[in-house]
Amino acid sequence: MFFAPFIFIWVIIFVIGLAFIFLLIQIHIINYAFQMLGLPPQLALLALLAALFGSFINIPVTRIENTGAPPPMIVRSFGVAYRVPTHYASGSTVVAVNVGGAIVPVLISIYVLYQFPAVILAAAVGTAIVALIVHRSARPIPGLGIATPMLIPPIVAALVAYALDAAFGTAQHHRDVIAFVSGVMGTLIGADLLNLNKIADLGAPVASIGGAGTFDGIFLTGIVAVLLA
How sure is the predictor about 110, in pLDDT bands with cuts at 50, 70 and 90? Predict the structure, then answer.
C-alpha cells in the first residue's frame, strides 16, 4: 500500500529539513553526533532517507470492521493536515505498519542498543515512561487513526534521557541512545499499540502504526536524540 501520510506541502517541509540536516553533516556538526550513536555518517544519512521516503510505504497486517462515519479527504490534527487514503475505503480498516515511521526506527534502535548494551535497562525504563506520557497525550482522530502532538515525544524523550543517564550512571553517558530508543519505542507503544482498541470507531480506511499522526513525532525524536550527543 503506497500513499503519502501528509499533504504535499508537508512533504516539502520534511525535504527542506532533510536538506538542512545533510548540510550540517557536510560541515561535520552532526557527523560527530551520529558517530556517538554508533552510526557511520553515510549509514545515518541513509537511515534518514529511508525514514522519510519509507513513510509512503505501509505493510498491511490485518483488517478490522469499522463503525465510524466515512472520512473526509483532508483531516487536521494538532495543526498538521493529513490526506486520508479514501481510495482504500471499503467499510473496514486496514491495520498496517509504516516502513519509515516504525520499521526503520525500530531497526535503528536495535542497532544502537547492540552497539551500547550498557544502556538497555535505562532505555527500557525510558520507553515505559515515554509510552505512558505519550499515551495520555494521544488522541483518536476520526478518519485518520491515532495522533499525538509532534513535539511531545522528542521533548519527553530528551528529559527522560537526562534523568535516567544520571540515575543509572551509565559509564559513557549515552543520553542520545537512551533518548532515541525510549522516544521511538515509547511513541510507537504509547500512541499506536495501546490505542489499537479504538481504531474500529474512527472510520479510517487505513490505520498505520508509525504512520500519519505519529510519524512526525518519531522523526523529530531521532533528530533531537542526535542533537543530544
Answer: very high
